[in-house]
Design a protein that fits this description.
By secondary structure, the protein is an alpha/beta fold. It is about 40% helix and about 20% strand. Helix 3 packs across helix 8 (about 280-300) and helix 6 (about 210-230) crosses helix 7. Bound molecules: zinc ion (ZN).
């Protein structure tokens, strides 16, 4: 590894767009590209549009930036299986159990590491963002859907099937709206952009004051449960809905968190906006690549 010259290719897979970036080992994005997700494409055609922006940056890494690519990191909308062996993003219907990791390895001839987008964001915000240097925190995204990742004792939690931290299905309204998961009253069924549009008949970009306040309250309720459960005192919240609702949302979330996190260790827990903005998803994907490389190196030493 040459810290001055090596870069990783970061890949962010979302429901509306896919993005790629070249990230230095210090977390600086030196180039990026993106393409909208065309929902009329077949699985293979969609991969073709992704490799378009992959190839563009692979070429620019050497020709334009004089850098060496050492790995690929992916942050993907869920559900996924471990290390993006397969991805089935809810809003990308062409990809169901799509073998993204093997496809990207074959295409780039580089090691590929992947994780859920919200977990990737947790790595990014803990590394360079609002949770910098913190050993225990929750990071979450309130956007079209709701997702999250938890860092506990300095480690990003994976869980049995790599879905740990999915706060979108914590119950916030008993007997509330039916959720896509089959349950009722999940945070995602009450406070996601999709839910807000279904409830209010208006897009989340045109919220009423009540909508912003209620969404904050529901998020605060879920965060309080997680802080009480896991001994956390910080939640970093990103995503277009939360950040778009701004201070009204964050004040309401904080007030609700204060009401429900009352234990010695959880009282005083803070909800704060994500700090990396639109760089967060790509820095997160890059951080997933670096974590994967470290794990590989450890495994090789043991062997
Ligand atoms: Zn649910």
């Amino acid at each position: 590894v040459d810290p001055a010259r090596d870069v990783v290719l970061a890949v962010d897979i979302g429901g509306t767009k896919m993005a790629t970036g070249l990230m230095t080992l210090q977390g600086e994005l030196i180039d990026r590209a993106q393409v909208p997700v065309d929902h009329d494409l077949s699985a293979q055609e969609l991969f073709g549009s992704l490799t378009g922006i992959v190839d563009q940056l692979v070429e620019r890494a050497t020709d334009h930036h004089d850098r060496r690519l050492i790995a690929v990191g992916v942050g993907s909308a869920g559900p996924i299986t471990r290390n993006v062996e397969t991805v089935s993003p809810v809003n990308i219907t062409a990809w169901r159990d799509y073998p993204l990791r093997s496809k990207l390895m074959e295409h780039t001839a580089l090691p590929v590491h992947g994780d859920l987008d919200a977990k990737a964001l947790a790595l990014a915000e803990g590394w360079l963002g609002a949770a910098q240097g913190r050993q225990n925190f929750l990071a979450m995204v309130v956007s079209t859907g709701v997702g999250g990742g938890i860092v506990l004792d300095g480690q990003l939690l994976d869980g049995a099937t790599t879905n740990a931290g999915h706060i979108g299905h914590v119950i916030v309204e008993p007997n509330g709206r039916r959720c896509g998961c089959g349950s009722r009253g999940c945070l995602e069924a009450e406070a996601s952009g999709r839910a807000i549009e279904a409830i209010t008949g208006r897009p989340p970009t045109e919220p009423s004051y009540e909508t912003m306040q209620r969404t904050g309250e529901l998020v605060g309720r879920a965060v309080a449960s997680v802080c009480n459960l896991l001994d956390l005192d910080l939640a970093v919240v990103g995503g277009s809905v939360a950040l778009g609702f701004g201070a009204t949302f964050f004040n309401s979330a904080q007030t609700t968190l204060d009401q429900h996190a009352r234990l010695d260790y959880s009282s005083g827990a803070r909800i704060t906006p994500a700090r990396l903005g639109d760089r967060g998803p790509l820095i997160g994907a890059g951080a997933v690549a670096l974590r994967g490389l470290r794990r590989d190196a450890r495994a090789n030493r043991v062997r």
